[in-house]
Amino acid sequence: MTRTRHSRSRPASQPRTRHPWIAVVCGGLATFAIVTTEMLPVGLLTSIADTVGTSTGTAGLLLTVPALLAALFAPLVVVAAGNIDRRHILSVLFVLLIVANLASALAPSMAWLLASRVLVGLCMGGIWAIASTLAVRLVPTASVGLATSIIFGGVAAASVMGVPLGALIGDLAGWRMAFGSMAMLAAVVLVLHLWSMPPLPVSQSVSVRKLFDALSNQGLRLGLIMTMLLVAGHFMAFTFVRPWLLSVSGFDPEWIGVLLFAYGSAGIMGNFIAGANAARRAGWTLIVIAAGLAITQLLLFSTADGAWAGALVLVLWGLAYGGVSVSVMTWTMKAAPKALEPATAWSVTAFNSAIGLGSFVGGNVVDRYGLHANVLAACGLLLLALCVAATIQYRFVRPGAFA
Q: What's the pTM value of the predicted model, to 2 decimals?
């Protein structure tokens, strides 16, 4: 599959811990905390825009800035970390995450908010890059699929509890309290991490050359393209899901938290369904996810005048998107099993670049052409992602090779 020769970015033996699954759950809490911090503005976008005196489209930069910086920092953190124990790197990143959330809570202006989100971008890139390889470091090979689902279950759980609870706290106590609450959650996760995570040494550091050598893998490159299309298409629409639900579907503000909770609950189901299937049928799982996301955008557009029809589509949307993270990362690890840290770092870069670009382009489309045009544009990108996923299945997946 790949012409490069790398040692796995993991120690020769599993870390010594009597409770590896507790550490796996801690990895899930790590992704939950960082993704909740990343996505928090989604449920607070209108309130933040009103407070700091900016447009809804401009407020979308609160997603764009950290996502683009996470794309930059993911490979840089992996290279800069050298041979440092990854447990120590994660600890430092969680301290910075606490600081970033406190800075957001105290922000007096849009410029201050954006500055604090720069720090969030650094934490996102580093935590995602390291957490992506935790499963193969902590559990036997036969259990990697389940462990990966649990770790990336934190992403779906962030949609279920993180974003809706953030929106609820914002409605009850203001958006600043929502960021303050995230600072407290990050502190709790830091304590649990220090207690449960074993040492995570690496047998070989990742150099700049090894980082770029990984891109010679054609399967990995195609997976990165698909990831960008898939995630950008999703976030073009999802960044502005609150304005859509309020102004197009016609829901009252108090329903937003409930609807996002339903979306996220479906996402958790999608995560574990996709995780189980991606381990055996990675290509077909990606095809189903891409098709599902494209169809939900078409349904969202066609049911714009029906509130409860739109709510049902939102649940289907969550079910489809819930499997994205675990499926693209499973393909990444299958495509580049001998270069895990470089490959997953590039995957994090692609994923977060797509979040930033999707929300940025979506903001411009919304401000210029409206929410309906944005949904159709998002659907177009998702159809392209479907084509790439089909290419992966029929070009790279072979019986008995990647399943």
A: 0.74
